[in-house]
Backbone:
C-alpha cells in the first residue's frame, strides 16, 4: 500500500459498479447558497388559513423589541398590534447561519402574562414534507354500525370529557398538560439520583404516584362505567382461530371419515364462491372498483352487490369504460383483444338488463373510432357486441341502423379494395 497525501485525494461516490469522482468545484456548485444569517418577510396570511397541524420544527421562539431602543420598541409595537387587529400572520424565510438551508416560518402576534405583545415563531413545512395519509373508513360496509352502537360511542366521548364545571360554575380542566410532569423523566431522574448517592443499592421500583399519573381519574372511570358495559354488549368480541403451520402430518396424514366428510363439505362450500371474489378463508371479499386483472368479475360483483357497494350502472359503467380505454391504449397490441371483447359483451348485457341502451351505444361508437383494424374485425365477428336494439332495451336503435353499424365497415373495405384494383388496372394500361 502507498500512503497518499490528503491534498491528493478527491471525493468519489459509487454508482452501481462505477466510481464517480466529483471535484471541489462541482461539489460547491451542487450546494445551495442560502446567504448570510437573515430573517426575510415574504408577506402576510390570514390566521385561519394555517392550522395547528401545519406547524413543524423542534420548538418555537419569541421575538421581542431590542432593549433600550425606543425606535425598535415603537416599530415592533405598531407591527404586532396591526397584525393582531387584522388577524394575520407573517410568513418569513429564516437562515440560522451561512451554509445552512433556509426554512419557512410564521410569526404570530401573542400576549404574555403582562399583556405585552410579542411575535411567536414556528417553522412551516415545505410541500415535499407533507404526508397526506389515507386511512380506510371505520364503517366497514360488510359490518355496518347500528344506531345504538354509534350512540354508545358518542356517550362514551361525552363522559370522558376532561372539561368540567367547578362549584363556582366556572369551566375547569381536569388535566392540564403544561402543569404535568413526564413520568418517564421523573423515574429516570430518581434512578440517576439513587445510583449516584447509593451505587451499591439496586435501582428503585416505579413509585405508585407515578403509575397513578398514567391512569385516568376515578371520576371519569365512574362516569363511564355504565356506558362501557353497554359497549361491551353492543360490540361482542369473538375468538379468532389462528391457522397453524402446515406440517407433513397435516398435509399427508390419514383423515378419519368424519374429517373427510367435513373436508368435502368445506370444499363444496368454497367452490360455490367464485375464486376471483373470495379470500383465503373462503369469505367473499368486497370489491369497490373495477380492476384491470378481472374486470368482468369486478363489474358483475359491483352491480350484484349494489346495496353494499353503492354502485349503479352509470358509475360501474364509467369504470368499465376507463378500463377498456386503458386496454386500447396498451402497448401489448392484440394480446388484449379477447379481454376487451369480454368486457364489451358483459357491459352490453348489463345495459340491456337495466334498460340503459344509450350508455353502451355511445361508448361502442367511441370504441369504433379508437380500435385498430385487427381488434375491430374481431369485435365485428363476435356476437353480442353491436349496438343495442330498440327491441332489447328502451332507447335502443332500429334494426337497420344496427346492421349498418358493422356493414359500413365491410362496404368501406370493399370500396377500398375496388379502388386499389382500379388503380392497378390504370397502371397496367399506362405500361
Residues:
Amino acid at each position: 500500500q502507498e500512503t497518499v497525501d490528503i491534498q491528493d485525494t478527491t471525493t468519489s461516490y459509487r454508482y452501481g459498479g462505477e466510481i464517480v469522482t466529483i471535484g471541489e468545484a462541482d461539489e460547491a456548485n451542487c450546494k445551495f447558497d442560502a446567504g448570510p444569517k437573515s430573517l426575510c418577510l415574504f408577506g402576510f396570511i390570514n390566521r385561519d388559513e394555517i392550522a395547528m397541524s401545519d406547524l413543524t420544527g423542534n420548538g418555537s421562539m419569541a421575538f421581542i423589541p431590542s432593549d433600550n431602543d425606543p425606535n425598535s420598541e415603537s416599530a415592533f409595537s405598531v407591527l404586532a398590534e396591526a397584525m393582531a387587529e387584522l388577524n394575520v400572520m407573517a410568513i418569513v424565510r429564516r437562515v440560522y447561519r451561512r451554509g445552512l438551508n433556509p426554512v419557512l416560518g410564521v410569526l404570530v402576534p401573542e400576549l404574555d402574562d403582562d399583556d405585552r405583545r410579542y411575535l411567536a415563531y414556528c417553522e412551516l413545512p415545505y410541500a415535499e414534507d407533507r404526508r397526506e395519509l389515507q386511512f380506510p373508513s371505520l364503517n366497514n360496509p360488510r359490518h355496518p354500525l347500528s344506531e345504538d352502537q354509534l350512540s354508545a360511542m358518542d356517550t362514551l366521548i361525552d363522559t370522558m370529557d376532561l372539561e368540567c364545571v367547578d362549584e363556582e360554575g366556572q369551566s375547569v380542566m381536569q388535566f392540564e398538560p403544561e402543569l404535568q410532569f413526564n413520568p418517564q423523566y421523573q423515574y429516570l431522574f430518581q434512578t440517576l439520583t439513587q445510583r449516584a448517592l447509593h451505587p451499591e443499592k439496586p435501582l428503585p421500583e416505579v413509585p405508585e404516584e407515578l403509575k397513578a399519573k398514567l391512569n385516568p381519574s376515578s371520576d371519569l372511570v365512574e362516569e363511564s362505567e355504565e356506558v362501557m358495559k353497554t359497549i361491551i354488549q353492543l360490540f361482542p368480541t369473538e375468538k379468532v382461530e389462528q391457522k397453524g403451520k402446515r406440517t407433513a402430518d397435516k398435509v399427508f396424514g390419514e383423515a378419519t371419515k368424519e374429517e373427510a366428510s367435513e373436508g368435502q363439505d368445506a370444499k363444496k362450500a368454497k367452490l360455490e364462491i367464485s375464486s376471483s371474489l373470495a379470500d383465503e378463508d373462503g369469505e367473499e371479499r368486497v370489491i369497490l372498483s373495477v380492476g384491470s386483472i378481472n374486470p368482468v368479475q369486478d363489474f358483475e360483483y359491483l352491480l350484484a352487490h349494489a346495496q353494499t357497494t353503492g354502485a349503479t350502472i352509470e358509475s360501474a359503467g364509467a369504470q368499465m369504460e376507463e378500463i377498456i380505454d386503458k386496454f386500447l391504449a396498451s402497448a401489448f397490441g392484440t394480446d388484449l383483444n379477447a379481454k376487451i371483447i369480454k368486457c364489451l359483451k358483459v357491459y352490453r348485457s348489463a345495459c340491456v338488463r337495466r334498460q340503459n341502451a344509450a350508455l353502451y351505444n355511445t361508448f361502442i361508437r367511441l370504441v369504433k373510432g379508437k380500435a385498430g383494424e385487427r381488434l375491430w374485425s374481431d369485435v365485428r365477428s363476435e356476437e353480442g357486441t353491436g349496438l343495442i336494439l330498440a327491441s332489447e332495451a328502451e332507447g335502443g336503435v332500429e334494426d337497420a341502423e344496427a346492421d349498418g353499424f358493422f356493414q359500413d365497415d365491410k362496404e368501406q373495405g370493399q370500396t377500398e379494395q375496388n379502388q386499389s384494383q382500379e388503380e392497378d388496372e390504370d397502371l397496367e394500361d399506362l405500361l
Observations:
- Residues 268-276, 278-283 have pLDDT under 50 and may be disordered.
- The beta strands are 11-15, 18-22, 38-46, 56-63, 88-95, 103-111, 117-124, 163-165, 171-173.
- The first strand starts at residue 11 and ends at 15.
